Amino acid sequence: MARLLARLVSIVTLLVVGCAPGTAPTPQTGGQQPPAERRAADQTVRFAVAAIPSSASPESTSAQNYLFNAQFDAMAHLDAKFNLNPWVAMRWEFLPNDNAWRFFLRNDLTFSNGDKLTAEDVAFTARLIANQTPPLPQKAVLAKLVDARVVDPYTVDLITSERDASVLYGMPYFLVFPKAYYEQVGKDQFGVKPIGSGPYELVEFRTNDTLVYRLRPNYVHPIRRPVATELRWKAVPDAAAIYNGIRTGEVDGAFSGLTVEQAELAKRDNLYLATVSPVTPRDQHR
């Protein structure tokens, strides 16, 4: 695998690297297609990051959503032009008489314990964000969210304290939790072994040190097409150590910025530098 050195800061960029939906091949000159890429049956991608949270649940941070994206699906996502695109929610509309937004959900997402993702799970997650004490980090981008209302199994209203269009741009941070499982195991256990509807499941977690995700067996995600078999995240606080890990091939990618000096070294070492443009106020990328 080519060594990848990327200045990445978000959940969604990880999906572009490892879980982007498949696209048709681009026609080549003369109508010929490029040769098919050969990949090993099992691929592990190793990421270095400055810090790993103390919890494996998105409740622990919104600044590092990229750490959870392999396992969780968000309500929507932003593209590079700030357009809001469907994910769990296929479409949405404003309800002016209720100060609410109605979301129409996909009906083909399944949590790793076999439960279907439904409006009950979205409403449950919304109420956690709106009401939990101390507040979840996601509350900062969904400040006007106060409640949720289930309309039918795949339709849910998110209610705000006043008319608020900005709630839509909190949807990339709205990672849907499984209501039944969360209530069964409780907040603390969910922080150690969470489950989601994404194509990967958590197989190893060490507080402030390591996160390891592996593809869910016999699960075909309806909109995401994973490439790697396993994703390994390791906390490496020292920027020089991260760079050296990439240079020696011990690390495949880094979710952190480079100094000017490191960027010049990377060029001399023939490493690949991926530069991305911010697409949200929190410098997230896709």
What do you see in this structure?
- By secondary structure, this protein is of the alpha/beta class.
- The chain folds into 2 domains: 1-19 and 40-71 and 198-286, D-Maltodextrin-Binding Protein, domain 2, CATH 3.40.190; 72-178, Dipeptide-binding Protein, Domain 1 (Dipeptide-binding Protein, domain 1, Alpha-Beta Complex).
- The chain is 19% helix and 23% strand.
- It has helices spanning 11-18, 119-131, 179-192, 239-248, 260-268, and strands at 4-6, 44-49, 76-78, 84-86, 89-95, 100-105, 145-152, 155-160, 200-206, 210-215, 230-235, 253-254, 272-274.
- It has a 5-stranded mixed β-sheet with strand order 9-10-11-2-12, covered by helices on one side. A 4-stranded antiparallel β-sheet has the order 5-6-8-7, with helices on one face.
- A hairpin with a 4-residue loop joins strand 5 (89-95) and strand 6.
- The model is unreliable at 1-37 and 277-286 (pLDDT under 50).
Question: Which properties best describe this structure?
Answer:
13 strands, about 25% strand, alpha/beta, D-Maltodextrin-Binding Protein, domain 2, Dipeptide-binding Protein, domain 1, four-stranded antiparallel sheet, disordered N terminus, five-stranded mixed sheet, globular, about 290 residues, 2 domains
